[in-house]
Specification:
Layout: E1 11-14, H1 22-37, E2 49-54, H2 60-73, E3 77-83, H3 86-95, E4 100-104, E5 113-119, H4 128-138, E6 153-155, H5 159-169, E7 181-185, H6 195-201, E8 205-209, H7 228-237, E9 241-245, E10 252-256, E11 261-262, H8 264-276, E12 283-287, H9 292-300, E13 304-308, H10 312-322, E14 326-328, E15 334-336, H11 345-359, H12 363-366, E16 375-381, H13 392-405, E17 409-415, E18 421-428, H14 431-442, H15 447-450
Parallel strand pairs: 2-3, 2-4, 3-6, 7-8, 7-9, 12-13, 12-14
Antiparallel strand pairs: 1-5, 4-5, 9-10, 10-11, 14-15, 16-18, 17-18
Length: 451
């Protein structure tokens, strides 16, 4: 059965346009409440309870109220955490033994977008099969339980403090961050009042930027999708490194003292090398987009490497299948499942910082052996449902480029799971070749078919 609403990271879209409307979100809350309540392994009370968190978008208030109403109509109690990182909701859902967690966020998208994503009672993203059950439930009319069975709502007042302590617990007890000056860019998002405290309480001198959300500025010129602000602040303040999160704080991009940026591929490599210094590492998982140089370098260290479909949920699935602990994406989603059940920008940053502390090296020194292959990614906006494989000219150009590259590079074309985009990626040992080849393919998209 094809999914109608759920993408690779929940349900997402422009606020006020289906499906991100109050009436749909209320129906979604009702459908999810019916499905998830029956799957919980344990709750804090005799009634199913769901935790709701959100990022700092102005639309979060409206969607939170709609979601709460739908869950209450299904007989589900609600706990409201307010603005919290996505991984915080995953942690608190599991720690409080709740039935499920829900996050209202469109992650790295601008404020006009929003979305809904769910976590199971174990703090993991819902499997495709469960999302399909929710979609099936949406096909039925919304009902309401008897008045005496309606759900209630209450605030979780200590949510921030609980999560800050959890993040700190993933950092080695024998280490601290004293003597380190760091810039922390919160993207005017969900971590604005959390991330600076975590690094400060571990001993770092923190310069916080992107920490003044107003409902409209989330991800605007700040954060992991606009890391130039972090890099500029690092240079301006003479900091040792920078940490940039996205709007819901599950992505991480870093920079060194010179402002040189490090993406998720490089940070995954660094974490693998750090783990190898203290014991064997069975393997690490990347995605179809992971730079080929990372795969080559990790395998040269005697560590296994596997690629998953793009999306941290699929990285996690392969990690679980293989029993491996580390995985990630170049976009900055990094997973250390011996530390947390889902990708977490703050916790990933702490793993990088602990690796640097143990090695006594800078970010630049620790990754010096890894030289990424030039990679060009072009995003082409299309109509929803556009099938690039039906574009004969584009397919033919892709095949021609692959023949020219041989074994010196690769081509990947895929549809975005969160936006109506076709992503054209070419990787080659020569940067000019990568750029020109990617553009050749992108130029073949039939405007009549795509528009």
């Amino acid at each position: 059965m094809a999914r109608q609403y759920f993408g690779t990271d929940g349900i997402r879209g422009l606020v006020g346009v289906s499906p991100i409307t109050p009436d749909f979100v209320m129906r979604l809350g009702y459908a999810a409440g019916k499905v998830l309540a029956g799957k919980a392994s344990g709750t804090v009370s005799k009634r199913p309870t769901v935790l709701i968190g959100k990022d700092t978008r102005i639309s979060g208030y409206m969607l939170e109220a709609a979601l709460q109403a739908g869950l209450a109509a299904a007989g589900v109690d609600v706990m409201l955490a307010g603005p919290m990182p996505t991984p915080a909701i995953a942690y608190l859902t599991r720690a409080l033994r709740l039935s499920a967690g829900v996050v209202i966020s469109a992650s790295h998208n601008p404020f006009q977008d929003n979305g809904i994503k769910f976590f199971s009672d174990q703090g993991t993203k819902l499997p495709d099969a469960v999302e399909l059950e929710i979609e099936a439930a949406l096909a039925h009319p919304m009902d309401c339980v008897a008045p005496e069975k309606l759900g209630r709502a209450k605030r979780l007042d200590d949510a921030q403090g609980r999560y800050i302590e959890f993040c700190k617990s993933t950092f080695p007890n024998e280490l601290d961050l004293r003597g380190l000056k760091v810039v922390v860019d919160c993207a005017h998002g969900a971590a604005y009042n959390i991330a600076p405290h975590v690094f400060h309480e571990l001993g770092a001198e923190v310069i916080a930027i992107g920490n003044k959300p107003d409902g409209f500025n989330i991800n605007k010129a700040h954060g992991a999708t606009a890391p130039e602000a972090m890099a500029a602040a690092v240079r301006a303040h003479g900091a040792d490194l920078g940490i940039a999160l996205d709007g819901d704080a599950d992505r991480l991009i870093m920079c060194d003292a010179n402002g040189r940026l490090y993406n998720g591929d490089e940070l995954l490599y660094l974490m693998v090398i750090d783990r190898l210094a203290t014991g064997p590492v069975a393997g690490a998982v990347g995605t179809l987009m992971t730079n080929m140089a990372v795969e080559v370098a990790i395998k040269q260290k005697g560590v296994g490497f596997a690629r998953a479909k793009v999306g941290d949920r699929y990285v996690l699935e392969v990690m679980q299948e293989k029993g491996w602990l580390l995985g990630g994406e170049g976009s900055g989603h990094l997973l250390c499942i011996d530390k947390h059940t889902t990708g977490d920008g703050i916790i990933s940053a702490l793993q990088v910082l602990s690796a640097l502390k143990r090695a006594g090296r800078s970010l630049e020194e620790a990754t010096a052996e890894l030289v990424l292959f030039p990679q060009t990614l072009i995003n082409v906006r299309v109509t929803p449902g556009f099938d690039w494989t039906a574009n004969a000219a584009m397919v033919a150009e892709k095949e021609q480029v692959e023949r020219e590259l041989g074994d010196t590079g690769r081509v990947l074309i895929r549809a975005s799971g969160t936006e109506p985009l076709i992503r054209v990626m070419v990787e080659a040992r020569n940067a000019d070749h990568a750029r020109s080849m990617a553009q050749r393919i992108a130029d073949k998209i039939d405007v009549k078919l795509a528009a």
